[in-house]
Amino acid sequence: MLNNNGTFINEGIMQTTYARGIPKGTSSQKLELYLEQFMLKVLDNFSWLKTGEIVLIKAAVNSPDAYPATTHPSAVEVLAKLIKDRDGIPVLGDQSGVEYIVHSPRGIIRGSTHDCFKQTGLSKASANVIAFEEDNWDDFHLFEHPKAANWPDGFYITPWVAKADHIVSLPRISTHAQGGVTLGAKSWVGILRQDSRMEFHAQGPYNAFIEHYARGSGLHAGNKRNLDFFEMITEIQLAIADKLRGTIFTATKVQTTMGPNQYLFENYGLKLFKAHVAEPETGLLIGSTDPVAADAVAVAFLFDCYKNHTPLHKKLLQKPVTILNGQIHELGSYNVWNNQFVAHGLNLGLGNKFSAGHKLVIDDAQELSDRLIKLTA
What we know:
Layout: E1 15-23, H1 28-42, E2 54-59, H2 73-85, E3 89-94, E4 101-104, E5 107-111, H3 113-120, E6 128-131, E7 141-143, E8 155-157, H4 160-163, E9 166-170, E10 174-176, E11 180-182, H5 184-187, H6 194-201, H7 207-213, H8 229-235, E12 244-251, E13 254-255, E14 263-267, E15 270-274, E16 277-278, E17 282-288, H9 291-309, H10 312-325, H11 340-347, E18 358-363, H12 367-375
Parallel strand pairs: 1-18, 2-3, 2-9, 3-6, 9-12
Antiparallel strand pairs: 1-17, 4-5, 7-8, 10-11, 12-17, 13-16, 14-15
Helix pairs in contact: 1-2, 8-11, 9-11, 9-12
């Protein structure tokens, strides 16, 4: 329900985070049917959507690599059609990583998110497709918030956050060489202007690669001892919290090593260190109006896929990446609620753990259900 300020509120109603098993080999047609049913449930049958309102669909399109390195195309297509069926206006948007798009005060230096949309197949969706870097540099809005302690000067976000009446997030599930994992919280990096993107990267591991990719832009950010890489990323969600109506993962496949792209290194004509793609017998749809709870279940599923569907030699290749990073931990070696993004999301009040007033419901997942409930307890 919306209050008078347009904020989505619970009003004490029991909250539910949902998951649904998807058997391996499910046809595209049947997956779309499952997605439709699932989205209607998670998004309360779009009771919040009025005629003519804009729904920003935030996809995860960090690269031109196909799903599962990026958002599942069927999820975008089904969501866009459901919005149009209710006379809403679906807008699909993102800005790809600095490896593929460099934006500066002088404009676009090189690359195009539209090219990434095309190569991933997402540009075929029944939605207006927006590349955030195509807005003028000065049109990005400065966002400041008292809880964004790691952004003392605020950060700049795409004007599409202000233009949208509602936002729905469609992340993917993957490991990440810098962040450990990339789920819902990490996906919001895509709404930042390039200078703010450089700012948080400078506080994290492997920033030399980011500086290399940004060459020619004139953009640079230095490391500041009092800022936390993981908390900076998590705090970006404060900019969209009032308009976020749901987070939905389509995880029939997940990347359990390297990441976030299909290859850890792809430059100078070389493609090195390919991410392992796990395709379990039971995939999962995960959805919630609570972005922190959705990420917690996604972390649990990533743990499960790493443990049960990742060969030993792939795990051994992942260990040096984890050790050299110095700020992340091996999947499954910690409690899901202690993941850096999840834990800080809880601290910020962006979501809650499961309790008597917030339950986790998993359908059609058999043994997987018991393992996930145990991991998220």
